[in-house]
Sequence to fold (423 residues):
Amino acid sequence: MSAHNETVTAIRRADDDIIASTDVANLVFDSADRVNAFVLAGHLGPGGFVRPDGSIDLDRARTVLLPRAAAVPRFRQRADTSERVWRWREAAVDPARHIRVVEAASLEELCAGLLTTRLDHAYPLWEIVLVPRLGSGGAGIVIRIHHAVADGLASAVLVAALADTAPVAAGTGARHLEHVGAVRARVGQFRRVVAGPKVPPSALLGPTDGPRSVRFVDVDLGAFRAGVAEAGGTVNDGVLAAVAGGVATTLRSLGENPPGSVAVSVPVGLKRHHDEGNAIGAALVPLPLGIDDRVERIRAIHASAGPAITDARHAGTFPPMRSRWLMRRFDRYSRSQRTIGLVTSNVPGPDSRIVFDTAPLLDMHGVGTLGGNVRISIVAASYAGVLGFGINTAAAIPADPLADALTRELAAIAAPTPDTTHG
Fold:
């Protein structure tokens, strides 16, 4: 077995068939109006199953990709929730269901539709959708993986298992040993989620039923990192600062006066146990919507995000994720909560391009789910020198103004001018 396959197997071992509590929680958090799956989408250049005219050789795609998927234990198992103890069960992989071709005008349009379509729990919880003739002589690919199988970080590793060669997987933060301090930190974290500062009445929160809108935005990673560093921040600080500026502008376009600050939920990587697809904590970071100066905004976020992420890693798994009973109650609570204003993730991807059957993946965007009554989810994913953003909004939030505003914020951070920098 290659070192790469050992990495994948370490995430999901076939002999541990009891579903881990964190993954059970993600099954509970899945419903018809809230599809709990992580999406990775991108454009493919010609090669292998992508013909020179951008059409798809579906038989070849299945011949190449299905054996690679079958090497990942959870890609050949379904979630059996029929008994008191939920287990992973071996299940047949249906080529027609798991690898298919769909016509679409754009990847954004396709992803928006998939985010309101549940994966069938009678089968392994993943699929690959190929889009012919998308772009100049190329095609599109969307890989959808249920959150019970893998979180965003692990999904990037599993996607790499389908590639011709395996880029080095991104690491996750270390989890502290269980002790009284960690338990206290976890309790404090839960209290902040349910009893923290409230989001004023806003379009940010409310019913999320109806269609989704998905938009993709890109920025050069090197230029963005350099721009954020000039303000004394990290890439993650810059991501949050750009999101803050984009959200504030969008709320103003809706006729709202943005609040001074709202809490953004930021997933934090933890050390992964062998039976977990999800090893994620949750940091609540105050997002300063009332600071117009980008440098000041980055510095304010840097001062608060670091301690919040450290606390989240110290606390470990968010308490409701440890119990099916707690998660069901938290699920009901989340539909009317007023503490979290939006969700933003930062997923490190490979530095070099992934290739599927000699077809290069030209770009990559991650798209996250909407949870509870939160109407905006933004995923930043680095890939081959580009930081790509996947914006997912409920119908009440227009995605185009948010994408335009975020584009301007990213460009301004990546190319700072004298009036946006401090000496």
